[in-house]
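FAQ: What does the model actually see?

It sees only this:
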Amino acid sequence: MSKAADILVIDDEQVVQDAVIKICALDNYTVDVAANVKSAIEKISKNNYPIIVCDIMMPDGDGFQILDELNNRNIDSSVIMMTGYSTVENAVNSLYKGAIDFIPKPFTVDELLSSVFRANKYQKIKSRQKSFPVQNQNLELLYVNCPVKYLRLGYASWMFEERDGSVLIGVCDLFLKTIESVQEIELLQPEEEIMQGISCISIKSVDERIHKILSPVSGRIVEVNENIKLNSSLIEKDPYFEGWIYRIIPTDIDYEKKHLIMCSSELL
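And it is asked to produce this:
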């Protein structure tokens, strides 16, 4: 398999293909295109694309076929799904099946570039992880996996159900490692409603990029971690305990759990 472009965009709309090419060129990425599932699979079988930007719905199939194909071939490209808000449930399901992110259509320049930036960092982290001999993997901790009994949405956000039925929500350490360093956090307010798969936290990194974190579950915010407001670095120092973001009353947690991944002590 040969190294081709940095990114493969899979979408049947010429305007979307052109937009991805022009936007990604701003950060010096090269882009190849495929207009349908069949063409995409042919390209994937011949070329190594570190990042794939893929529409969910296409004339001859869907993005889930691409995820299945990558899995069957043991190809670890970072997949970013594109979707309209009417298909958020499908997009959330794509994270469960291996995509690392999804962005709305139409997307902004910043949304795409931030997502691609994280996908590129994700590839570098995985490459470093694989380069460690098995016996030496504990010599450098690249990121901390979320604790057992937590559930996560892709690699971005986590939830933990308390005994009183409330749910704590936070950001996964791996996501934080892909944005490098937090400069500012924008939070919602108590009593606001959040939805699974919709942004509930915005983080500005030191390079001025804006990174939106998707909520793992839907519900009503009943408490915001005041310590985060006073010290934003807490989210990086202790993302799974003292660095939690919201406490919510979930809307339909039993239904939404099917899109979440059970955390374990294993690395991704």
